[in-house]
Amino acid sequence: MKSRRDKTLVAILVVFLVLLTDQLSKIWIKTNMELYETIHITDWFKIYFVENNGMAFGIEAGGKLFLSLFRIIAVTFIVIYLNKLIKQGFKKGFIACVALILAGASGNIIDSIFYGVIFEASYPGHIASFVPWGEGYSTLLHGKVVDMLYFPLFSGTFPEWVPFFGGEDFLFFRFIFNIADSAITVGVILLLLFYRKTLSYSLLSKSEREKFDKEHQEKTIESET
User: Fold this and answer.
1) Partner of 208 for a Cys bridge, out of 35, 173, 175, 204, CB 3.0 to 4.6 A?
2) CB proximity list for 204: less than 8 A, separation 6 or greater
3) Residue 196: exposure state from Cβ atoms within 10 A (0-12, 13-18, ≥19)
4) What is the rounded CA–CA span in Å between residue 54 and residue 47?
5) Domain spans, the chain
6) Is the Cβ–Cβ distance between 51 and 169 less than 8 Å?
7) Are 201 and 212 in contact (CB under 8 A)?
8) What pairing do the DSSP bridges indicate for beta strands 154-157 and 176-177?
9) Which residues does the annotation mark as catalytic?
10) Which of the 8 DSSP states describes residue 114?
11) 176, 148 in Cβ contact below 8 A?
């Protein structure tokens, strides 16, 4: 029982800290910067305020309402999955990785659901502020996601001999993202690096898992004899 409580606490703590950091940073950006305003930190790191209707890293896909509903459904399934992992006794590290993904998805959902009804529109020459509920720039579920982390690590020109892109300028890394996007990315990378087998095992059905456990136990016995 104590182990389950500790793992639940780990998941709650991860989600809370990511959401708190994500939302505080977005609210500060939204209420202190004009759209497309830039704060130069270093040549390879800038705070660059943009808004988008799409998925992580500003990728556009589908209509705004569709994306908001998709995020809500996805988060619901992740919550159910995370609760299942805790009940079945998976390791804290694995649970923390899934909690990172949950927190990141939830952070962008908050923007999509609420920002349109509680904020003025941001645009060049104007810094937005909070407004009474329903007097914002859009309606419920149609808010824009705030992004600000920009890492233009290096730029250059493709050699003339490169097919299709020869002679064109390029910039790496051109995506602009937020803390929520970072949490999703870190969670996925850690899962793939350290918990691939655990992830595959957790997605098995009960019958498939019992069969796997039986085969693994038989192989262990054979190796010991």
Assistant:
1) 204
2) 212
3) exposed
4) 19
5) 2-194
6) no
7) yes
8) unpaired
9) 147, 181
10) I
11) yes
The residue count for the chain: 225
CB environment 133-156: b (16+ within 10 A), e (fewer): eeebbeeebbbbbbbbbbbbeeee
CA-CA distance, 78 to 100, in Å (whole number)? 11
Cβ atoms of 67 and 61 closer than 8 Å: yes
**Span 72-114, pLDDT tens digits:** 999 999 999 999 999 999 999 999 999 999 999 999 999 999 9
Residue matched to tokens 């409580």: 5
Is 0.90 surpassed by the pTM of this model? no
**What is the DSSP secondary-structure string of 37-82?**
-EEEEETTEEEEEEEESSSGGG---S-HHHHHHHHHHHHHHHHHHH
Q: Is 90 left (phi over 0), alpha (psi -120 to 50) or beta?
A: beta
DSSP 123: B
Q: What pairing do the DSSP bridges indicate for beta strands 38-42 and 45-52?
A: antiparallel
Place of tokens 């892109």: 165
